[in-house]
Protein backbone atom coordinates (compact mmCIF):
# COMPACT_ATOMS: atom_id res chain seq x y z
CA UNK A 1 0.00 0.00 0.00
CA UNK A 2 2.78 2.41 0.87
CA UNK A 3 6.37 2.77 -0.10
CA UNK A 4 8.77 1.14 2.43
CA UNK A 5 10.29 3.66 4.81
CA UNK A 6 13.78 3.19 3.41
CA UNK A 7 12.44 5.19 0.49
CA UNK A 8 11.14 8.20 2.45
CA UNK A 9 12.83 11.58 2.00
CA UNK A 10 12.65 15.31 2.68
CA UNK A 11 9.20 16.85 3.03
CA UNK A 12 8.36 20.15 1.43
CA UNK A 13 7.03 23.27 3.09
CA UNK A 14 3.50 23.83 1.89
CA UNK A 15 2.24 27.29 2.82
CA UNK A 16 -1.33 27.39 4.06
CA UNK A 17 -3.54 30.17 5.36
CA UNK A 18 -4.89 29.59 8.85
CA UNK A 19 -8.58 30.02 9.31
CA UNK A 20 -10.38 30.76 12.56
CA UNK A 21 -11.86 27.72 14.33
CA UNK A 22 -15.63 27.42 14.28
CA UNK A 23 -17.99 25.53 16.51
CA UNK A 24 -19.19 23.04 13.90
CA UNK A 25 -17.42 20.14 12.22
CA UNK A 26 -19.28 20.46 8.93
CA UNK A 27 -22.57 21.41 7.38
CA UNK A 28 -25.71 20.55 9.28
CA UNK A 29 -27.90 17.91 7.67
CA UNK A 30 -31.60 18.65 7.38
CA UNK A 31 -31.28 21.68 9.66
CA UNK A 32 -29.90 19.62 12.54
CA UNK A 33 -27.31 21.24 14.78
CA UNK A 34 -23.85 19.95 13.86
CA UNK A 35 -21.89 18.23 16.63
CA UNK A 36 -19.34 20.39 18.44
CA UNK A 37 -15.84 20.66 17.01
CA UNK A 38 -13.19 18.39 18.55
CA UNK A 39 -11.24 20.24 21.23
CA UNK A 40 -8.36 17.78 21.60
CA UNK A 41 -6.46 15.33 19.42
CA UNK A 42 -8.09 12.47 21.30
CA UNK A 43 -11.52 13.88 20.50
CA UNK A 44 -10.45 14.12 16.86
CA UNK A 45 -9.59 10.41 16.87
CA UNK A 46 -12.87 9.44 18.50
CA UNK A 47 -14.78 11.60 15.99
CA UNK A 48 -13.02 9.81 13.13
CA UNK A 49 -13.94 6.48 14.65
CA UNK A 50 -17.52 7.49 15.39
CA UNK A 51 -18.13 8.80 11.89
CA UNK A 52 -17.26 5.39 10.39
CA UNK A 53 -18.53 3.13 13.18
CA UNK A 54 -19.60 -0.09 11.49
CA UNK A 55 -18.76 1.38 8.07
CA UNK A 56 -14.99 0.89 7.82
CA UNK A 57 -13.45 -1.88 5.73
CA UNK A 58 -11.81 -4.88 7.40
CA UNK A 59 -9.66 -5.97 4.47
CA UNK A 60 -8.50 -4.62 1.13
CA UNK A 61 -6.90 -6.15 -1.93
CA UNK A 62 -5.51 -3.97 -4.69
CA UNK A 63 -2.83 -3.31 -7.24
CA UNK A 64 -0.56 -0.34 -6.63
CA UNK A 65 0.89 1.43 -9.66
CA UNK A 66 3.99 3.45 -8.78
CA UNK A 67 5.90 6.25 -10.45
CA UNK A 68 9.32 7.27 -9.11
CA UNK A 69 10.70 10.66 -10.15
CA UNK A 70 14.49 11.01 -10.22
CA UNK A 71 17.08 13.14 -11.97
CA UNK A 72 17.36 10.33 -14.51
CA UNK A 73 13.65 10.48 -15.29
CA UNK A 74 10.60 8.47 -14.37
CA UNK A 75 10.52 4.79 -13.52
CA UNK A 76 7.44 2.65 -12.97
CA UNK A 77 6.65 -0.39 -10.90
CA UNK A 78 3.63 -2.42 -9.81
CA UNK A 79 2.92 -4.01 -6.45
CA UNK A 80 0.29 -6.52 -5.40
CA UNK A 81 -1.07 -5.71 -1.93
CA UNK A 82 -3.30 -7.18 0.76
CA UNK A 83 -4.34 -5.34 3.91
CA UNK A 84 -6.10 -6.43 7.08
CA UNK A 85 -7.17 -3.74 9.56
CA UNK A 86 -5.54 -3.22 11.94
CA UNK A 87 -1.75 -3.64 11.61
CA UNK A 88 -1.47 -6.00 8.66
CA UNK A 89 -0.09 -5.06 5.24
CA UNK A 90 1.58 -7.33 2.71
CA UNK A 91 3.32 -5.86 -0.35
CA UNK A 92 4.48 -8.25 -3.08
CA UNK A 93 6.65 -6.64 -5.72
CA UNK A 94 5.36 -7.88 -9.09
CA UNK A 95 6.76 -5.65 -11.82
CA UNK A 96 9.17 -5.08 -13.40
CA UNK A 97 10.39 -8.23 -11.61
CA UNK A 98 8.34 -10.81 -9.68
CA UNK A 99 10.95 -12.70 -7.70
CA UNK A 100 9.40 -13.24 -4.27
CA UNK A 101 10.55 -9.88 -2.95
CA UNK A 102 8.44 -7.46 -0.94
CA UNK A 103 7.67 -5.95 2.43
CA UNK A 104 5.41 -7.07 5.26
CA UNK A 105 4.09 -4.82 8.03
CA UNK A 106 2.67 -6.62 11.04
CA UNK A 107 2.11 -5.38 14.59
CA UNK A 108 4.37 -2.35 14.23
CA UNK A 109 7.26 -4.32 12.75
CA UNK A 110 8.55 -4.34 9.17
CA UNK A 111 9.97 -7.37 7.37
CA UNK A 112 11.84 -7.08 4.07
CA UNK A 113 12.09 -10.08 1.76
CA UNK A 114 14.39 -10.68 -1.18
CA UNK A 115 13.96 -13.64 -3.51
CA UNK A 116 11.51 -15.18 -1.08
CA UNK A 117 13.84 -14.99 1.92
CA UNK A 118 13.74 -12.71 4.93
CA UNK A 119 16.49 -10.12 4.45
CA UNK A 120 15.77 -7.73 7.31
CA UNK A 121 13.32 -7.10 10.13
CA UNK A 122 12.99 -4.18 12.52
CA UNK A 123 10.44 -2.42 14.72
CA UNK A 124 8.52 0.06 12.57
CA UNK A 125 5.37 1.95 13.37
CA UNK A 126 3.96 2.85 9.96
CA UNK A 127 2.37 6.32 10.27
CA UNK A 128 0.43 6.11 7.00
CA UNK A 129 -1.01 2.74 7.91
CA UNK A 130 -1.92 4.01 11.37
CA UNK A 131 -3.67 7.21 10.29
CA UNK A 132 -5.32 6.10 7.05
CA UNK A 133 -6.71 2.79 8.33
CA UNK A 134 -5.72 1.39 11.73
CA UNK A 135 -6.91 4.41 13.72
CA UNK A 136 -10.49 3.43 12.88
CA UNK A 137 -10.11 -0.03 14.43
CA UNK A 138 -7.80 0.47 17.42
CA UNK A 139 -8.81 1.78 20.83
CA UNK A 140 -8.37 5.55 21.03
CA UNK A 141 -5.83 5.14 23.85
CA UNK A 142 -3.73 2.89 21.61
CA UNK A 143 -3.87 5.43 18.80
CA UNK A 144 -2.82 8.23 21.15
CA UNK A 145 0.14 6.18 22.38
CA UNK A 146 1.16 5.50 18.78
CA UNK A 147 0.96 9.21 17.92
CA UNK A 148 3.28 9.97 20.83
CA UNK A 149 5.70 7.35 19.49
CA UNK A 150 5.61 9.16 16.15
CA UNK A 151 6.59 12.40 17.93
CA UNK A 152 3.28 14.07 17.13
CA UNK A 153 2.35 16.69 19.71
CA UNK A 154 -1.00 15.41 20.95
CA UNK A 155 -1.66 18.63 22.88
CA UNK A 156 -1.96 20.74 19.73
CA UNK A 157 -5.05 20.84 17.51
CA UNK A 158 -6.25 23.61 15.23
CA UNK A 159 -8.69 24.31 12.42
CA UNK A 160 -7.28 25.23 9.01
CA UNK A 161 -8.07 24.92 5.32
CA UNK A 162 -6.25 23.10 2.55
CA UNK A 163 -7.02 22.79 -1.15
CA UNK A 164 -10.45 24.27 -0.58
CA UNK A 165 -11.42 21.94 2.25
CA UNK A 166 -11.72 22.58 5.95
CA UNK A 167 -9.32 20.44 7.95
CA UNK A 168 -8.22 19.65 11.47
CA UNK A 169 -4.46 19.81 11.98
CA UNK A 170 -2.99 17.78 14.83
CA UNK A 171 0.55 18.27 16.07
CA UNK A 172 1.56 21.74 14.86
CA UNK A 173 0.62 25.38 15.23
CA UNK A 174 -0.18 27.55 12.22
CA UNK A 175 2.93 28.24 10.12
CA UNK A 176 4.82 25.22 11.49
CA UNK A 177 5.87 23.02 8.57
CA UNK A 178 8.64 21.07 10.31
CA UNK A 179 6.89 19.37 13.22
CA UNK A 180 5.30 15.96 12.70
CA UNK A 181 1.60 16.52 12.06
CA UNK A 182 -1.46 15.12 10.33
CA UNK A 183 -4.37 16.83 8.57
CA UNK A 184 -7.90 15.38 8.66
CA UNK A 185 -10.81 16.35 6.42
CA UNK A 186 -13.38 18.03 8.67
CA UNK A 187 -16.34 16.57 6.74
CA UNK A 188 -15.17 13.15 5.57
CA UNK A 189 -12.94 12.46 8.62
CA UNK A 190 -10.09 10.89 6.65
CA UNK A 191 -6.39 11.66 6.43
CA UNK A 192 -5.52 14.24 3.77
CA UNK A 193 -1.96 15.10 4.62
CA UNK A 194 0.89 13.87 6.83
CA UNK A 195 4.23 15.50 7.54
CA UNK A 196 6.64 13.00 9.03
CA UNK A 197 10.32 13.21 9.96
CA UNK A 198 12.84 10.40 10.23
CA UNK A 199 16.36 10.85 11.57
CA UNK A 200 19.21 9.33 9.57
CA UNK A 201 22.85 9.21 10.57
CA UNK A 202 23.58 12.57 8.95
CA UNK A 203 20.32 14.48 8.62
CA UNK A 204 16.63 14.76 9.33
CA UNK A 205 14.54 13.30 6.49
CA UNK A 206 11.13 14.96 6.12
CA UNK A 207 8.35 13.65 3.93
CA UNK A 208 5.08 15.33 3.03
CA UNK A 209 2.32 12.90 1.97
CA UNK A 210 -0.83 14.02 0.15
CA UNK A 211 -3.90 11.74 -0.04
CA UNK A 212 -6.89 11.54 -2.38
CA UNK A 213 -9.76 9.05 -2.18
CA UNK A 214 -12.16 6.95 -4.23
CA UNK A 215 -15.41 5.19 -3.35
CA UNK A 216 -15.49 1.43 -3.90
CA UNK A 217 -18.62 -0.56 -3.04
CA UNK A 218 -19.74 2.27 -0.78
CA UNK A 219 -16.44 2.48 1.13
CA UNK A 220 -14.07 5.43 0.99
CA UNK A 221 -10.58 4.08 0.25
CA UNK A 222 -7.31 5.74 -0.82
CA UNK A 223 -6.88 6.42 -4.52
CA UNK A 224 -3.53 8.23 -4.75
CA UNK A 225 -0.73 9.21 -2.41
CA UNK A 226 1.88 11.72 -3.55
CA UNK A 227 5.20 11.92 -1.70
CA UNK A 228 6.82 15.37 -1.71
CA UNK A 229 10.49 16.28 -1.47
CA UNK A 230 11.91 19.80 -1.82
CA UNK A 231 8.62 21.03 -3.20
CA UNK A 232 8.39 18.34 -5.89
CA UNK A 233 6.84 14.86 -6.07
CA UNK A 234 9.39 12.08 -5.91
CA UNK A 235 6.98 9.14 -5.59
CA UNK A 236 3.36 8.72 -6.71
CA UNK A 237 1.26 5.66 -6.02
CA UNK A 238 -2.20 4.88 -7.40
CA UNK A 239 -4.55 2.11 -6.20
CA UNK A 240 -6.43 0.23 -8.92
CA UNK A 241 -8.50 -2.97 -9.08
CA UNK A 242 -9.50 -2.40 -5.46
CA UNK A 243 -11.53 -5.12 -3.77
CA UNK A 244 -13.18 -4.27 -0.45
CA UNK A 245 -13.51 -6.85 2.31
CA UNK A 246 -12.18 -9.91 0.47
CA UNK A 247 -11.65 -13.02 2.55
CA UNK A 248 -8.00 -13.01 3.63
CA UNK A 249 -6.38 -15.51 6.02
CA UNK A 250 -4.16 -14.08 8.73
CA UNK A 251 -1.53 -16.64 7.71
CA UNK A 252 -0.49 -14.58 4.67
CA UNK A 253 0.65 -11.83 7.06
CA UNK A 254 3.01 -14.14 8.99
CA UNK A 255 6.71 -13.68 8.14
CA UNK A 256 7.29 -17.42 8.29
CA UNK A 257 4.70 -17.95 5.56
CA UNK A 258 5.96 -15.30 3.13
CA UNK A 259 7.32 -17.74 0.57
CA UNK A 260 3.94 -19.47 0.29
CA UNK A 261 2.57 -16.40 -1.47
CA UNK A 262 -1.01 -15.18 -1.49
CA UNK A 263 -3.73 -17.69 -2.39
CA UNK A 264 -5.98 -16.68 -5.26
CA UNK A 265 -9.49 -17.72 -6.18
Looking at this protein, list some descriptive labels.
265 residues, outer membrane lipoprotein receptor (LolB), chain A, 13-stranded antiparallel sheet
* CATH domain class name: Mainly Beta
β-strand percent reads 35-45%
Neighbour order of strands in the largest sheet: 6-5-4-3-2-1-13-12-11-10-9-8-7
- Count of helical regions: 3
Count of structural domains: 1
Report the order of strands and helices.
Answer: HEEEEEEHHEEEEEEE
> What's the β-strand tally?
13
CATH superfamily: Lipoprotein localisation LolA/LolB/LppX
Low-confidence stretches: 4-29
* Largest sheet, strands/sense/barrel: 13 strands, antiparallel
Question: Helix share of residues?
Answer: 10-25%
Q: What coarse outline follows from CA principal-axis ratios?
A: globular
Mean pLDDT: 89
Query: Structural class of the secondary structure composition?
Result: mainly beta
CATH fold group:
outer membrane lipoprotein receptor (LolB), chain A
CATH architecture field: Clam
Distance between the termini: 21 Å
How many whole angstroms does the radius of gyration measure? 19 Å
What would you note in describing this structure?
- This protein has 265 residues and is mainly beta.
- It has one domain: outer membrane lipoprotein receptor (LolB), chain A (Clam), CATH 2.50.20.10.
- Helices cover 10% and strands 43% of the residues.
- The protein has 3 helices and 13 strands.
- A 13-stranded antiparallel β-sheet has the order 6-5-4-3-2-1-13-12-11-10-9-8-7.
- Helix 1 crosses helix 3.
- It starts with 40 loop residues before the first helix and ends in a 21-residue tail after the last strand.
- About 10% of the residues have low confidence.
Amino acid sequence: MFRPFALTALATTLMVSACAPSSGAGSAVGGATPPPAPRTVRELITRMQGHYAGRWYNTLAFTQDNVSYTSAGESRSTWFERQMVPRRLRIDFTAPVADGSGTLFRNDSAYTFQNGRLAQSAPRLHPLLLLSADAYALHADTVMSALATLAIDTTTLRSDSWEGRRVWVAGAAAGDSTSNQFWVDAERWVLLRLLDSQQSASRTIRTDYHFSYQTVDGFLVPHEIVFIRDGKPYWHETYVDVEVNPSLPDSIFLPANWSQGVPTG
